[in-house]
Amino acid sequence: MSQTSAVPNNRILIIDDNPSIHEDFRKVLCRRETRHPGYADTKALLFGADTPEPERTTFEVDSAFQGEEGLQKVQQALAAGRAYALAFVDIRMPPGWDGVETVARIWKSDPDLQTVICTAHSDYSWNQMTRQLGETDNLVILKKPFDNIEVLQLAHALSRKWELRHQLQGRLNNLDQLVRERTAELLSTNERLKQEIAERGHIEHALRLFEERFAKTFRASPIPLAIQSAAEGEYVDVNHGFEAITGFTREELLGHTPTELNIWSDTTGADVILEKLSEKAAFRDLPCPLRTKGKQLCDTLLSAEFLELESEPCILIIVRDITKQLILEAQLRQAQKMEAVGQLAAGIAHDFNNILTVVQGYTSLLLSEKAPGSSDYESLQTVSAAAARAARLIRQLLAFSRRQVLQLRTMDIRDTLAAISQMFPQMLGEHIEVKIVAAPALPLVKADSGMIEQVLINLAVNSRDAMPNGGRLVIAAKAVKLNPPAVPGNPEARPGSYLCLSVADTGCGMTRETMARIFDPFFTTKPIGKGTGLGLATVYGIAKQHSGWVEVQSEVGRGTTFQIFIPSNDEAPFVLSPTSVTPVLPGGRENVLLVEDEEAVCTFVAKVLKSHGYTVYAAQSGVEALALWPQIKPRVDLLLTDLVMPGGVMGRELAERLLVKDPTLKVVYSSGYSPGMAGRDLKLLEGRNFLPKPYDPSQLLQVVRECLDGGKKANAPCRLTLS
Fold first, then answer.
1. Tens digits of per-residue pLDDT, 568-591?
2. pLDDT tens string 20-49
3. Is residue 71 within 8 Å of residue 22, measured between CB atoms?
4. Are 445 and 317 within one domain?
5. Which CATH number fits the domain that encloses residue 129?
6. Quick check: pTM over 0.85?
7. Same domain, 461 and 430
8. Angstrom distance (rounded) from CA 283 to CA 274
9. How far is it, in rounded angstroms, from Cα 593 to Cα 599?
């Protein structure tokens, strides 16, 4: 509660748990002088009889022995309208609040209270106090033992400061009141001026009504607008937006009705418009297809309002073109559908890869034990080939769902084009003329060359199937730069610099209905048994995984063009060193900690490693592996771990925790899907090995041996990422 009167406030509160301190303060602040009987005569003799006696200030002192009691007294004083001007607070008051906490709580009730903290210790530094209490000029520190004069000076100065502050606040309140009153007067005057200006503006507006309505507001509006005569239905005025959407000029529209120009494709819709407006009833957003001068149809929403111009009944027509909006909504629904199907495909692929690892692994083991001429050798080969086909199908699912492992490197697309150009004649046949065109200056891209190869091969095979009687296939690469105004009506497109790969054929083309489903997994127009329906879905997934997108243009009988946009990259290209055929690698004598939650996979891997000399310690979760680690003697040489496991400890976390215990530990990660499925923020470090499932014994032994030996392949500078 603020006290704004000029009456001095000499009320002081002492908060200290020591009663003797209270007595000391009272002696200093409430001292009454007792004078000798001869004091007046001696004073008159020395200073003269008229020397005025200085008036001594007396203070009203209250006591509190704990912080809570002090807070109560402050609140009671505020409620009574007799706030304290000053409080002396001891820093230590066990038990309960200390001085700093007491001051903090008191200031919440009375922020104007001048406060002196009394201390004989270094419990708090000034910085600590200000961090807890905030920057303030209401706080003073008094060191014990204190000097009486110093206490008296503080009491006088701070109580006077409190008084001056409240006098100032009172004057400011008075000034604020004056300002508010003056502001109210000015606002009232301003409102009167506005009314006068508005009245004058209405008069001027009446004189310029037609010029401003039609020349400025009407014609300049980007929204298509037209005014029709309610009686004859003829257009009496149109704006530029209406001309643009219909394709007719202003001269062709004025004086004619929509029926004469055949603008509305739905005649019943036009009848509804006239019926509603004949009743002088407005309507909003009525779907009504519009036919342009060039006979093209646009999806529009029609709104109309009845009005009178110079006492003549007219109709204001407002048209909103929603053609692009409907296209974008359809594309968005398609993208959401693809994402949902991709999530499902990734989960299915993971489970199948675990199954295929066991099938492919044990089939390879059985084949290695059989002679080529044995009775069941051919059957095992058939099983192995079927497992390999299933693995390829799973890789396509992972590519479509954007969960495939990518080995990204900065590359020149011309190397990939040169490589695939040699295989196209045998793959596509002599009846297909193939032309590869690469612009002289192409940007580098950060991509997986194998995945880009797969994209081009899938599109080329599709084009071949669309040209059974022969035709022309053109594969081109060029640099493109998309600016915001030039970005096409595609929600996936973004401004920037890109490499554009295009595959164009002269085949049979596609209908709109077919184009709407070409990227759906398992959708195909080929006869049963002639295709999996994953080719274009894989293309879509790989493009998305490279932070790009796919665009398609097709017309029945005139061929199809696919364009794949991949962001350009300025890094130096990575050059692969020549490699030789790697022989079957021998086993070893090292200790391997195998962590795999799939029991069948764990048994298979342990069997292969043990048969080649390794000592294998198996665990089916990260938690179990951490418990097993101290029991392995002398030490673990290699950790072979699945990425996604139950129990709360994933493969990456397990490796990091074990690498802290042994920084020389070698690590091989394995998974039925990409590393990113273990968590969006999971990134494998460069130089780590990743063994994708399914794999056969030779792949397993090769990766393990290379990692243990620290060879070139084990430390290849590739990054495994997930978009």
1. 887 655 554 444 444 455 688 999
2. 889 988 888 886 555 555 656 666 666 665
3. no
4. no
5. 3.40.50.2300
6. no
7. yes
8. 11
9. 15
